[in-house]
Amino acid sequence: MTSPLTGRVALVTGGSRGIGAAIALALAKAGAAVGVNYRARAAEAEAVAATITRGGGRALAIQADVSEGGAVAHMVESVARQLGPVDILVNNAGIAPVRGIDELTEAEFDATLAVNLKSAFLCTQAVLPQMRARRWGRIVNISSGAARGAGAVGVHYNASKAGLEGLTRGYAARLVKEGITVNAVAPSLIETDMVKAGIAQTPARIPLGRFGTAEEVAQVVMMLVGNAYMTGQTVALCGGMAFN
Fold first, then answer.
1. Based on CB atoms within 10 Å of each CB, which residue in 58, 146, 149, 152 is the most buried?
2. Which residues form the signal peptide (predicted)?
């Protein structure tokens, strides 16, 4: 049987590890060729791409600081040239410097919004012509429970993820008639390096009793990619800590 995404090309920002790597591998397993974006972790991104190619898929590890417009344009052009036009965009790149309200600096606030929010705008704008040409596209933005709750990182992170969900709804409303869906996934306390670094050392406050996994986030992303009727939605993934 043909895999559901055979012939499609995906681009995953921040795809070298954690949630991004799990999403890249899930997309490849479904048949998509995958551009694995990274900023600094070249070896890890190359390892993800190598895993995909060993399994018979097509992949490209591609460096770009996605908070910079020129770098994004070059990245999207390179993916299109080597893999094909982008059909699926997963905006996963993000930073989360933990800061209290009295120690947060203007530079840290600006950097967090640039990487977590502006990058999604830049990448979306860059791939839209390719999606519009085929009247088919899937855009999934990786948000966070911090978009609606206090969270443990800081107000800069809250603002960046709340903005990302607003961006999701805005694009969804404007692209719905062009065959392009735009949705978000909002994970909370997933067992990644960020959580292990001390944001939540134990899952004691999670009703389910454990941290989520990157693979479980990837499952939700794949559901959104496969659903042509859902758009403008944010899917929470939090082990029962909150309900929409």
1. 146
2. none
CA 192 to chain centre: 14
Domain ranges for the chain, please list them: 9-237
Q: What is the pLDDT of residues 127-176, one digit of tens each?
A: 999 999 999 999 999 999 999 988 889 999 999 999 999 999 999 999 99
In this prediction the pTM is 0.95
CB contact at 8 A, 138 and 181: yes
The residues with which 91 forms a beta bridge, in sequence order, are 141
How far apart CA 237 and CA 190 sit, in angstroms, is 9
Give CA–CA dist 101/87, Å, rounded.
40
User: What SS3 class is residue 181?
Assistant: strand
Q: Residue type at 170?
A: G
Known catalytic residues are 157
Give the phi and the psi of residue 38 in degrees, each rounded to 5: -150, 160
pLDDT value of position 194: 66
Domain spanning 9-237: CATH 3.40.50.720: yes
